[in-house]
Amino acid sequence: MKIEEIKRVVVRGTNWVGDAAMSVPALRELRRVLPEARITLCTRKNLAGLFEDADFLDDVLIYERGKNAFQTVRRNAQNWREREFDLAVLLPNSFESALAAKFGKAKNRIGYKTDNRGFLLTHALNIPEWKSERHEVFYYLNIIAELEKILSGKTNVFEREPDISLSVSEQRKSAARRFLLENGIDFNRKIIALCPGSTNSRAKRWGAEKYAALADLLTETANVVLVGAPDELEVSAEVVKNAKSKLILLTGKTTLAELTAILSLADLLITNDTGPAHIAPAVGTKTVVVFGPTIPATTRPFSDLAEIVRKPPACAPCMLRDCPIDHRCMTAIMPEEVFGLLTENGERRTENRM
After folding, report:
1. What is the DSSP-derived secondary structure letter of residue 344?
2. 218 near 224, Cβ under 8 Å?
3. Long-range contacts at 62-69 (CB < 8 A, ≥ 24 apart)
4. Integer Cα distance of 57 and 49 in angstroms
5. DSSP codes of every residue in 261-276
6. What is the pLDDT of residues 141-168, one digit of tens each?
7. In the beta sheet, which residues pair with residue 87?
8. Any residues with CB less than 8 A from the CB of 318 and at least 6 apart, and which?
């Protein structure tokens, strides 16, 4: 594989919002390594909006889903063949993504040799020994580091601080302002967003009644808006039902691109360990994340703008999607404690809460 022969690159993106945000530093480094190549991100339709203003990509190709795995591979392989990619960079660990790259006739295919897919790759990478000890952004960055070594014999990927930032155009911000005004936001007050859901794990959720109690404390000085995906509407509605104050329910009313723009206008996001926890600091918004069953060292937002709240019992982190006992890692955290972390003499604290 020679750098001058790499003209068209496809990156098979990750499958979840948080992972997509954590892959941004790798995508930025790929642009640095291949400044002259045309870089296409192939990602799921619901994730494309996250990259709407990304200056490190040339275009976004939707990863099409079929009725079954075979149909999915066939559809995407056909799309890739038509574009004649010189290189496929595979961020997911799945066999399916490697099979699509192989049948899509990408000349070079690089990724981790997970899921018994090594024979489908031209450059199969070993999983780093530090995988479970370092932040997930480095797992994706390592693929680009190995690619740079192949192309030039050395790498500079780890010599700079990973850049997680995402751009939001003024046009999108203006549209977000209009949307917020239409939904009752008073721009003379602060905007605090709450994300009480989590798409892929109920165990990650701090209780709706706790979010409601926190919201009642926050509405004295701020607009409080509830955000999230359509499948998180039920838990957001429960927060509204339990709250004594008036909250603004936006859950399920926005695309990911619109949510990203809204978060860029917010003063603060308080959330579970889920996608928006990574988006908000990436667009410059301070963020507080309530952690329970997951590992903050590897999956917390990679930003000084974010801090975590955590009271781990002996059973945490368990990484389970449903708690088999009493959800003690979350029930131990009180709304008054979270509220107390937000202000100290009128200013947010910045230290991390482990």
Report:
1. B
2. yes
3. 63/12, 63/13, 69/96
4. 13
5. HHHHH-SEEEEESSHH
6. 999 999 999 999 999 999 999 999 999 9
7. 9, 108
8. 203, 293
| Average pLDDT over every residue of 269-293 | 94
Question: What CA–CA distances, in Å, run from 288 to 36, 140, 225, 253, 260?
Answer: 39, 24, 15, 23, 16
> CA 248 to CA 113: how far, in whole Å?
46
Taking only the tens place, the pLDDT of each residue in 239-279 is 999 999 999 999 999 999 999 999 999 999 999 999 999 99
Does pTM top 0.90 for this prediction? yes
**R_g (Cα) of the chain, nearest Å:** 21
DSSP codes joined into one string, 229-291? -GGGHHHHHHHHHH-SS--EE-TTSS-HHHHHHHHHH-SEEEEESSHHHHHHHHTT-EEEEEE
Which backbone phi and psi does 61 adopt, to 5 degrees?
A: -110, 130
Query: Model confidence over 9-37: pLDDT tens digits?
Result: 999 999 999 999 999 999 999 999 999 99
Q: Length of the chain in residues, anyone?
A: 354
Rounded-to-integer distance, Cα 188 and Cα 221, Å? 10
How far apart are the C-alpha atoms of 353 and 332, rounded to whole Å?
14
Whether the Cβ atoms of residue 83 and residue 60 lie closer than 8 Å to each other: no
| 37 C-beta neighbours (distance < 10 Å), count | 18
CA angle 72/76/81 to nearest 5° reads: 145
Q: Is omega for the bond preceding 301 within 30 degrees of 0, making it cis? A: no
Phi, psi of 162 (to 5 degrees): -55, 135
Query: Could you tell me if residue 228 is left (phi over 0), alpha (psi between -120 and 50 degrees) or otherwise beta?
Result: left
